[in-house]
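Researcher: I've got a protein sequence and the SMILES for 2-keto 3 deoxy 6 phospho gluconate. Could you write out the 3D structure of the bound complex as structure tokens? I'd like something to compare against our soaking experiments later this week.
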Amino acid sequence: MQLLSTVQDMTNEKLAVVIRGDSAEQAEQTGAACYAGGVKVLEVTFTVDGAENVIRRLKQRFSDAIVGAGTVLDAETARIAILAGAAFIVSPGFDKQTALLCNRYQVPYLPGCMTITEMITAMEYGAQVVKLFPGGTFGPPFLSAVKGPLPHVNIMPSGGITVDNTAEWLEAGAVMVGVGGDMTKGAKNGDFDAVTAEARRFMQAAGGVQ
Ligand SMILES: O=C(O)C(=O)C[C@H](O)[C@H](O)COP(=O)(O)O
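Model: Sure. Here is the predicted complex with 2-keto 3 deoxy 6 phospho gluconate in place.
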């Protein structure tokens, strides 16, 4: 039940951080700073050169973290991520070949979806959680409205999530949120303590919602 238990562990955490960075080293430091602030779900994006090594390193350093891959555009990249130990795969759009590959290895695939049809197709291809991307463009009322006809769809909004709207998204029915820049912006100036402080604020915002 590896796939289902990973999904359960992720949604229990309510929040994933989306890690970008100018280098593998910066991405690793960003992930470590978020972990220090209480974030357990770490999504290392494949816009980072050497992302697979960052996944390996973060897994070695933080054995109770759930480390996965983001910005995975194709099955080839998904396989590289899975071989590096990625616990989950996230993409900005929905790709059928990636879905099939992830199912083959029983690794959860969270594809980006913007329409009801994409969400239904993603579910038909086995997605337990779909990513509403870019979430901020749609907003929490869109998510609530989708859950009218599709009460069984599990949605993780990502893109434009802030510490101030995190609780609102969860109250609207999001199973978890994906957070990038608003948590990690300090990393650009090397201020990883600021990243840890933001991570703490986010986890408080997410933890306040049952
Ligand atoms: O490419 C993927 O797989 C992603 O997960 C994209 C992320 O959702 C955003 O990059 C996060 O966006 P911000 O929180 O606005 O910085």
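Model: Residues 18, 45, 70-71, 90-92, 133, 158-161, 178-182 surround 2-keto 3 deoxy 6 phospho gluconate (CB under 6 Å). Strands lie at 15-19, 41-45, 66-70, 89-91, 109-113, 130-132, 155-157, 177-179.
Researcher: Great, I'll pass this along to the crystallography team.
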